Amino acid sequence: MPLLPAVSSDNAKDHYLLVFQSSLAQNCIPILRSVLSERIVSKIQRHCVLFCLLYPPASLVPTTEFIVVHDWLDRVPGYDDSDKPSELLEIVEKSLEDTSLPTDIVVDSVDTLLSDCGSLSATESLLSKIYALVKKHQNSRLILHTQSPSPLLPLITSTSFSTSLVHVTSHPPALIQHLATEFLMPPPPLSPLPKFWSVFLPVSERIQDTERLVFGPGGEGSGHPAEIVVELIVRDASGRKRGLERVLEGWSSNSNQGSCDLIALESLKDLMKKQKEQLSAPDPTQNLSFNLNLTSSQQESRAQVPLPYAHEGRIVPSPAPATIFYDPDSADDIDDDDPDEDLDI
């Protein structure tokens, strides 16, 4: 059963911070729109304040009847004299004070807010103040939308910012197809989960390579319009369930609930069918006098081995200064005396 509807619903408790991460290769807006539209379908009494800094309101919500929208798309620094960060904080504080209903504070996007604030520290401080106000209000949530790569992402997803977190990252289905064909690593259950994550995570973090799959030769030129591969990270700090959970799910606009199993995506059905046929083919390792298969513990140990390309882009400490050690052989003419000592200089 998909995890995303359970942790992003209006009835979800202890998840005060939701981060939706888009990229050029695959937009996360359809999922965010679905989450914001849930209260309209279920008719749950809930207050929502939406700040549009990047996308127009029509892209995020089907109707503004039950949502307070602040459309700030035309507020460009240098052309507008208003203090956007201070005004945003005042609106959030007043909105939470004026209602007893659970409230969603939605900011799209924090990267645009970063350009308005001018520095990482100022933006993080502003978001921390907003999050502190939201957390004091019962069953309220702070929903942030970001574009990757984003310098703010490591800050707002850290435990120092929030102990509880729901982090939704969108990936194109072309990434799963690439892993299955080039790395022979189809998604679970066709591959062991630890082994799949050891390949998926470093490849998905190379954003330029993912964009090349979509915009390069043979790519679709844009993310899939109706289907998304969702990487979901849930960090729960409440009660006895403290820990981190990472799952890979599918999301389809053709599904009733949106979320679905990864193998249910239409764009991956042919791939999954082909992989299943290959797995059901006769095993060439049968009837051998030795064993070529790995046990589950051996597979887990192998999956924990760091891959050489997993450290790309990371700062590696400079090694110690190099030293040359020379051991002369018997034919070398080496004399410790000064060859010019007989010269009267």
Automatic annotation (TrEMBL):
Organism encoding this protein: Crepidotus variabilis
The family this protein is said to belong to: Belongs to the ELP5 family.
GO cellular component, one term: elongator holoenzyme complex
A Pfam family hit: Elong_Iki1
A Gene Ontology biological process term: tRNA wobble uridine modification
Region Disordered, annotated ranges: 296-345
Residues passing through the membrane, by range: none
UniProt pathway: tRNA modification; 5-methoxycarbonylmethyl-2-thiouridine-tRNA biosynthesis
Regions of compositional bias (Acidic residues) in chain numbering: 329-345
Superkingdom of the source species: Eukaryota
Subcellular location: Cytoplasm; Nucleus
Residue stretches in coiled coil: none
Signal peptide: none
Protein name as it appears in the record: Elongator complex protein 5
Keyword terms of this UniProt record: Cytoplasm, Nucleus, tRNA processing
Gene Ontology MF terms in the entry: tRNA binding
InterPro entries in alphabetical order: Elp5
